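Troubleshooting log. The previous structure file for this entry was overwritten by mistake, so regenerating from the original sequence record. Sequence copied from the archived sheet and checked twice against the printout by T.R.
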Amino acid sequence: MTGPPGPGEAGRLPRPADGGPAGPAGPLHALGVRPGMRLLVHASLGGTGLRAEELRDALLAAVGPRGTLAAPAFTPQNSKTSTAHLARIAGLSEEGVRDFRARMPAFDPACTPSHGMGVLAEAVRTAPGAARSGHPQTSFAAVGEGARELCAEHPLTSHLGEESPLGKMCGKGWKVLMINVGFSVCTAFHLAEYRIPKPPLRMYECVVKVKHPGLPGRQPAGPEGEGWTAYEDIALDDSDFAEIGRAFPEDRIRRGWIGGASAMLFALPHAVDHALEWMTENRR
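Regenerated output below.
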């Protein structure tokens, strides 16, 4: 049995001749997905012909019972400043905004859908036996060996830092699989923002349940044990992620096709190290 391709091996697979959908199992193996692998997946399946549940199940079969599959299950609309939240309150009067925010439900990891993460992320979140971390804005969902440990203890003040599931993934050598998306949405790059010298900070606000794990300081008060809380964390900025991705060494990437969708596989720690070097040299 051959192992996964090394970083210096040829990484491009031919696109299917008809460009149409095909079963994902063979292409996943050709791309380098192996039993026991731990995968953080990002995907946009619109127009690819791939079905979320079928692809999720193929990924789980490819990594096997000793592997783990995870996806971002973010809820950015739980905010007062995010683009997702501002779109929801656009056009409302001041009174309407106050009423809307007063009625916003607290994040519930058991049932709050992710927002803007795609159908594959939702398929991972809703998979039988899936675990989900408790951050009310940047949670992760995972299935497989170690999923519950990965998603445990995700503090509010570490969206995507060392204490988050992303930080744990980096320490354990996870791979990143990106399907039909580019580096502009590469969550792994955010961990580098926590490692640059003196990263900028900002305040965040979201609706949480009283006694939320990791809630700093005061407990919110409100109907049904829910309320707004504020906390400080890194000022996350993905505006240069596409540029960081263009500078990522090609010999660190395994490229191919899954059905009609382009895909790339790379080591999460390599991505974080590259982003840290780039940010240290180029961000001001």
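The mean pLDDT is 88. Archived copy saved in two places this time.
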